[in-house]
Putative membrane-associated ring finger (Amblyomma aureolatum), 201 residues
Amino acid sequence: KHISVVSGHPWTCGPSSGEQVVPGPSLASSSGPICRICHEGDHSAPLTSYCSCAGTMGLLHSRCLERWLSISHADSCELCHERFPTSRVRRTLAEWYREAPQQRRALCADLICFVLLSPIAGMGLELCVQGATSQATTRQIMQAGSLIALSVLLIMAFVVWSYFTARYHCRSIRTWREDNAKVVLVPRRDDVRVDVEATLS
């Protein structure tokens, strides 16, 4: 894969473009150390070292690192190769609804089919049962049995279709939530919060 060093925000190119995103090195600007991913200082969030990179090379905003790890599907530093302390949090159903339009449209289409087919299946079942009852009263056992078998097949087909459709959508939603899980940094004892003034001195 082609590896590109990001000069701005690391999520401008992601896995969809076939490139692996690698944050550029952190530099110390005139105002102090900066995050090596977004190239901003500690005015918006504190800079923290989560790996073994020395000096300003290891300075990162936690939100920048979490976003980069989520997009790149990496779990370790690309420079020192130390694993970051992370956990993966599955996305919510609301996020799936907003960010998976194709799956959402397929689910809505199947829900509409279910709403339309439910009364049709119910009416067909009722007509078959009424016909079977009428045939049974006139001692036409074969015709009554055929109508009963038809009603059973009708309801079974509807139930089987509903089951496999619901199963497909549940599996599709679960897979999307797992594949697009958010990476969250887990605090640990040896995490070092960088003092900017001490670094500059």
